[in-house]
Amino acid sequence: MQVRAVTPGRLESIIGVRRTERFEAAAASARELLARRVVLNVNSTAAGGGVAELLQTLLAYARGVGIDTRWVVVQGSPAFFAITKRIHNHLYGSPGDLGPLGPAEHDEYETVLHANAVELGALIRPGDVVLLHDPQTAGLAPALHAAGVSVVWRCHVGLDRASEHSDRAWEFLRPYLGDVDAFVFTRDEFAPPWVPRDRLFVIAPSIDPFSAKNAAMSSADVLDTLRYVGLLNGGGPQPAVSFARRDGSPGRINRHVDILQTGPCPPANVPLVIQVSRWDTMKDMRGVMLGFAECHDRLDAAHLVLAGPSVHGVADDPDAGRVLDECIAVWRTLPHTVRVRIHLACVPMADADEAAAIVNALQRHASVVVQKSLAEGFGLTVAEAMWKGRPVVGSAVGGIVDQIVSGETGWLIDDPNDLAAFGAALARLLSNPDEAERMGEQGRRRATELFLGDRHLEQWAQVFAHLG
To answer: Which long-range contacts does 188-191 make (Cβ < 8 Å, 24+ apart)?
Structure first.
């Protein structure tokens, strides 16, 4: 993957001089430590998920401070990705497809990753650093360790309390991770007890305030974009809205969103509740829809938009089509008076930056942003919404609890399955616009303080120092 270097100095206008100086000092130390060494990131998809977005940001800023960091994507068979999705679901405490994780699955997993390890061998030298992301890459660790590189396994998913399903996933993964030099988890609770504490680091993800997903947009550009792509009523010509691509070139929005709805798109002047996420069981799009339906009579004229990537646009997620189909089936059972206010949207992924710009406009127009996950590693959409000054209703699971301060930047739902509590939180925010605005302002301050790239890269510098 090609990533353009970005000078971190552009963050100074947001984080201030003192914080910029601290970051520059950490960057200089890391640059000296990593001199003549490559830092190679390996994950399983180039677009369509939080890890891919995160890598775009981190690599751009790391390259901007002079660290030679690169990114490759593993290639796998449908069977391989079915196995890793099973592990992914188990790490979130879900039974997933109830499929096996026995000798045959180990054989398929190892065969695919052996072929990838051979190709990676041409890109690395002894002394380099390889950052492996998530279960899809864990099986590369033994071969890379044997090649003389420092190996870091970065796990973005997890469960606050172990379950029989998560134990099963860790049993599958553990044999591959014995020689890993450092482990990085989003939360301390996600790490299994066998991970050595002297090799464990906890790093929360971050957002880039200048990316196509998060850059400032005027109200007029937001409306023009959403009308053109089909997410708001009114239509119109292609908007003269530009966004900065990852390579620095300007882009324009050309494509339309595929949307399932009864009747017209939401009017621009009604409150909009949105959840943007993968079509993944753990994101509970179905539960968001049912929760909205149960309390729709208390939400005035509000509409709900559930938006996810085109199911053909995320290579490592074989379950996306099934989850979307399940949502559509539930949507069709709703009364017409409810269904007319609920819209299911698939954002085209042919151009990842264009997709990000569409999501940016949707989040900025929302009255309330939701992340009602059943389990969550971090949930970048929460930090994104907070950065845009939107109040967030989220489940009290995983990294969401590290972002939302309930009652201050939004509301946390203790039980993700408590649809009555979910509906009450929506109703309170939609009926109290002053409170919603106050929470949005406090959320932006919190996102600025905790979830921008300078803090994130400073913590990675500590990992590199540990590697020596």
So the answer is: 189/158, 189/159, 189/160, 189/161, 190/155, 190/157, 190/158, 190/159, 190/160, 190/377, 190/398, 191/155, 191/158
DSSP annotation of 204 reads -
| pLDDT range class, residue 360, cuts 50, 70, 90 | very high
Three-state secondary-structure class, residue 394: strand
Q: Where are the alpha helices (DSSP H) in 34-71?
A: 50-64
pLDDT beyond 80 at 372:
yes
DSSP for residue 452: B
Euclidean distance between CA atoms 88 and 283, whole angstroms: 13
| Strand pairing category for 272-276 and 368-371 | parallel
Token pair belonging to 428: 């309170």
Q: CATH classification of 219-450 is 3.40.1190.20, yes or no? A: no
**Average pLDDT value for residue range 321-349:** 96
Q: Specify whether the CB–CB gap between 29 and 464 falls below 8 A.
A: no
Q: Which residues contact 114 (CB under 8 A, 6 or more apart)?
A: 143
Give the gyration radius of the chain's Cα atoms.
22
CATH: 3.90.930.12, 3.40.47.10, 3.40.50.1460, 3.40.50.2000. Which one for 8-206+452-467?
A: 3.40.50.2000
CB 381 within 8 A of CB 344: no
